[in-house]
Design a protein that fits this description.
By secondary structure, this protein is of the alpha/beta class. The chain is built from 16 helices and 10 strands. This is PhnD/SsuA/transferrin family substrate-binding protein.
């Protein structure tokens, strides 16, 4: 009898272990997605919302974000396999395509839909006119990047020739542009947030215009991946896009204060009130895309801006580098 009881316990224990093993095996580990972001910016608030609010986690994804500091470094990380997804300006996908890439980089989810820079004046009398820039020293962004191309596009829109009407400085590294202006270089500077708002708060300059408002809608920052990655990991890419769409909707429905509180951990060196100010400014000018669909009009506007700046290596058809399948499905569901 004792042997029977021991055998029964053994069978029960064995069955329990087998069930536990089977249960564990059925629990799929989260799919890992490595994202290379071109810079750390409040401009990308929906991405950090997706991380903080658990939208990626709810989709069964483990998303890791690394800041690669520059479009060229970001694309290098993507093309070399150091990242699965890149968050960078859509112009970079055109540059790669023009070089004859065998595995082109595809834009599959849009994050921002305007330029994110502002015109900051050293001295401000209370009123501003673009004519004020004529004869001034203008500290612009790196040549070939979207900020510089949009900057020149807007100047020309206001009948200002960047080559002859202003003393245009473009040989300062991106990371040092703000310091150069603070040190006394330039009458005007093109700056991203939160630097523009911090300068205004500290009395170092005054925000007088928005390049985002002036240039119209463009696919300024998008999530992109190599074509082969998207085809081989369609389910993962779809879940990623779903999470981004949920974050975009949350940002649209939330106040600047609520958004600032959620993304504050990603900007420990920026005062909370400045984060809120910046978020509000971007919301007011509709910089955050409402959904991840990159439409053809925005794509054509991008190429017009690049062409005007003399930086478009070749015209690229919308369907060659843009895939809206994932974004449309995310928005529909």
């Amino acid at each position: 009898m004792r042997r029977i009881m021991m055998l029964r316990k053994f069978l029960i224990l064995t069955l329990g272990c087998m069930m536990l093993f089977a249960f564990s095996a059925c629990q799929q580990s989260p799919a890992k997605v490595r994202v290379a972001e071109v810079t750390r910016s409040i401009f990308y608030a929906p991405l950090y919302v997706a991380l903080s609010k658990g939208f990626f986690k709810n989709e069964g994804l483990q998303v890791e974000v690394q800041t690669t500091w520059g479009g060229d470094k970001t694309m290098t990380a993507l093309l070399s396999g150091g990242a699965d997804v890149a968050l960078v300006g859509s112009e970079t996908s055109i540059y790669v395509y023009a070089q004859g890439a065998n595995d082109p980089v595809i834009n599959f989810a849009q994050l921002t839909q305007t330029d994110g820079t502002f015109l900051v004046a050293r001295n401000h009398s209370g009123s501003f006119d673009w004519e004020n820039l004529k004869g001034s020293t203008f500290l612009g962004q790196r040549k070939g990047g979207m900020p510089q191309m949009v900057g020149e596009f807007v100047l020309k829109k206001h009948q200002i020739d960047p080559e002859t009407d202003v003393n245009l400085i473009q040989n300062i590294d991106f990371a040092n542009i703000a310091n150069a202006f603070a040190s006394g270089t330039g009458d005007y500077v093109q700056l991203f947030e939160p630097t523009a708002s911090i300068f205004e708060k500290e009395g170092k300059g005054h925000i007088v215009a928005s390049f985002g408002t002036e240039s119209g809608k463009v696919p300024y920052t998008t999530f992109m991946a190599k074509k082969n990655y998207l085809s081989q990991n369609e389910e993962t890419a779809q879940k990623f896009t779903n999470a981004i769409y949920k974050a975009q909707q949350w940002v649209e429905k939330s106040t600047a204060a609520e958004i600032a509180k959620v993304i504050e951990p990603y900007f420990e060196d920026t005062p909370a009130d400045v984060i809120e100010t910046v978020v509000d400014r971007y919301k007011q000018q509709h910089s955050f895309a409402l959904n991840p669909v990159l439409d053809e009009e925005e794509w054509n506007n991008l190429q017009d801006i690049m062409s005007e700046a003399g930086e478009l290596p070749q015209a690229v058809e919308y369907g060659d580098l843009v895939n809206t399948k994932l974004a449309e499905k995310a928005a529909a569901e």
